Structure formats: C-alpha cells, structure tokens
Amino acid sequence: MGFFETDPPKKYLEILQQLRLIDDTFFDVCFDGNIEGMGLLLRIFFHRDDITVKEVITQRSANNLYGRGARFDVIAVDNSGKIYNVEIQRANEGANPKRARFNSSLIDSREVNKGTKPQDFPEFWIIFITEKDIFGANLPMYHIEHIVTELNRPFGDAAHIIYVNGEYRENDSLGLLMQDFFCSEPKNMHYQELAKRVDFFKHDNKGVSTMCELMDNLREEGRLEEIGR
Description:
alpha/beta, single chain, 229 residues, two-stranded antiparallel ribbon
C-alpha cells in the first residue's frame, strides 16, 4: 500500500469510502494542484469558457498558506492574475459574512506589496460552497458586492464574494456539480474531471495510501474526528 507496512486500518478505509467533495479535508486533497478540476468549477460558477487556471494551491501544498493563523481551503490564480479563494463550509457559522471579510483582508495582505499602486491591486473572489442554503431563498448562487448605497452603483473595489448553494439540484451545470459534491461514489458522478480524481484517492493504491497517511496524521494530532464533518 505504500505508507503502511501492512494493510491500513479498516477504520480509515471505511471513512475514506464515505468522503465526498463537500467534506473540506477531502476537497483540499482532491483539488491540490488540480488545475483541470478548478477550471471546471470556475467555468460553471461564472458561466464562462475563457477562464484558464494557471495555479492551484491548498493547505497541503503550502504550509501556513497566506500567513500565520490563516487556513484557506483552495487558492487559484488565472492567467490574468485574478485570484479565487474557494472554501467548503458545511456549518452555517463557518460561512459568516465576517469570515469572508477576514479572508479578504488576508488575501490583500499577501498579494499587495509595499509600494503597489491601488489601481494595480488584484481582483479577487471569495467563494463559499455551503452545505445548506444559508440565505433560504432557493437560489443557486448569491453574489455579494460593495455598492455606493445612495447611488445604487458598484463601489469598484475589485473584491467579490459568492455563496454557492450546496442544496441546489436542478438539471443544469451547477445542479449537476452540486450533486457530484455530495456523491461518495465516483462512478455515479457527472463530471469526469472530478470523478477521476475522487476515484484515484478512493481506489488507487497510491491515492488510498495518501489518504490513510493523512488520516493517521490527523489521528496523532487528535483531529481524526474532524474529517468528514
């Protein structure tokens, strides 16, 4: 198997088979360096075919990503320099608006160097994929923008927030994507860009070994119960 000299603990294998992309630990693993998969997500979220992702980083591939105390799920950068922070939030409190504010400030502190002119600040999106429809309006997505209230026009600070409703199940590209995020069996998923990655970590010896090693590290840290929550 690789990491374990004998077969990995049965408990690890049972947990692994239950994991889905809506589970943030598994999401991080499946999207680490996964340019193809992240490109799929962004094209669906933005209804565009011209987004080209050049880099995807998760907590697994960058220790203390974006500063001490910060823990981003995934950061992606496209060819035009736009930044996308994609977060899995299964608990409503995790998608608190002040969490988006916190993530925004961390991105700015990382990306804006001393002497950078304001017009050169990068445009970025904080994207929360939530397990529940936290706004309760049965909409597929919710877009939050800063506006000049009295003029009812955009403020133009190039900072954007999107909440993706994980309960959305219509028969369109986003509805199929959300079905895939809640699917534990890759053969039942709609998007092969995601299914093949999930299949690797659930059924390929190397992928299974990687996941079991991660779970063993979480166990040693007393955090194994967090996985899949």
